[in-house]
Amino acid sequence: MARTQRKAPAHVVPTRASRRRARASALEPEQDDHELSAQLREMGLYAAETHGDGNCLFRALSDQLYGDPKYHAKLRAETCDHLAAHADMYAGFIEAECPYEAYVDQMRTHGTYGGHLELSAFAHLTQKRIRIVQPGYVYVVACDDDSYSARASRERRERHRRHMLAQDTPPRGTPPECVGPLHVAYHSWEHYSSLRLLRGPHKGHPNIPDTCHETENHADAEHLVDMSVPGHSQRTIRRLLRAHHGAWEDVVEELIERDANGDESPYDDDDDDHPAPPRPAQASEPGVRELTI
């Protein structure tokens, strides 16, 4: 199949071949798996069995997003549709001798191995960060930029996902999508696996916590509320964010309505009354690198 390649140092799209070359001391598959398994155990994770039939990437993504690998064909088609619709964004990463349209057509074929280009397209399509774990290395495929509008769009979509997951009667057809980033293992023998917690659940949505980024998201939400409706205490903002399940836009609407009506917040007379702090700088986890294209 056609392979992607590095085009510019500022925006790297590593391929399987380039990642193997980058690991000068390449391990044998058995050693590699042993190292990866030990690394995952330290993280409280394991690589779920994912059928290696050329559809492993999309099976892993399906298990992460829906809690079931069987929707891999649907995700492959949607990812390829996204690639086709955004040729201006992705075509530069395809080898020159392979026409972009031919690459996408081949990727639509059941059993064609997907790689980092498909991961990036899927991340942008679903607005989901994807954490990739491989022996001795972890990196994150970013889903878009960090602009105000991009964050707002991500949060709206995640809010809808929470709403769908909270329904007493699950929708017919495709299961609801998970909340939070996706977690996938990459094995040196060109295979992707869905990651799950050692303590479970072993079926359904993996529900892998992302505490570091949850903290950052809460700080982002506080900052966005304070920028939109300044003058309210940190305690007020935090209480309202909890009441609205983190939906900062709903908090802004409530505060605007209160201000217009002259209502005082029940929390504004607390001892810890002070404005929300500036949004902290993004903390990077050791060994984790944000990759964008």
Tell me what you see in this structure.
The structure is a single chain. The protein is built from eleven helices and six strands. By secondary structure, the protein is of the alpha/beta class. The chain has a six-stranded mixed β-sheet with strand order 1-5-4-2-3-6. α3 crosses α4 (72-85) and α9 packs across α10 (234-243). The longest helix is centred in the middle third of the chain and has 18 residues, at 148-165. It is globular and about 65 Å long. The relative contact order is 0.14.
Question: Structural class, please?
Answer: alpha/beta
Q: Average pLDDT, to the nearest integer? A: 79
Largest sheet entry? 6 strands, mixed
Order of helices and strands: HHEHHHHHEEHEEHHHE
| Helix content bin | 40-55%
Net shape: globular
**Uncertain residue segments:** 1-26, 269-293
Estimated share of beta-strand residues: 5-15%
Instruction: Specify the number of helices.
Output: 11
Strand order of the largest sheet: 1-5-4-2-3-6
Radius of gyration over all CA atoms, rounded: 21 Å
CATH class designation of the largest domain: Alpha Beta
What's the quick description here?
By secondary structure, this protein is of the alpha/beta class.
Task: Please describe the topology of this protein.
Elements (H helix, E strand, L loop, with lengths): L15 H7 L6 H14 L2 E3 L8 H11 L5 H14 L1 H4 L9 H8 L8 H11 L3 E5 L2 E5 L6 H18 L16 E6 L3 E7 L13 H18 L5 H10 L4 H14 L28 E2 L2
Parallel strand pairs: 2-4, 3-6
Antiparallel strand pairs: 1-5, 2-3, 4-5
Helix pairs in contact: 3-4, 4-6, 4-7, 9-10, 9-11
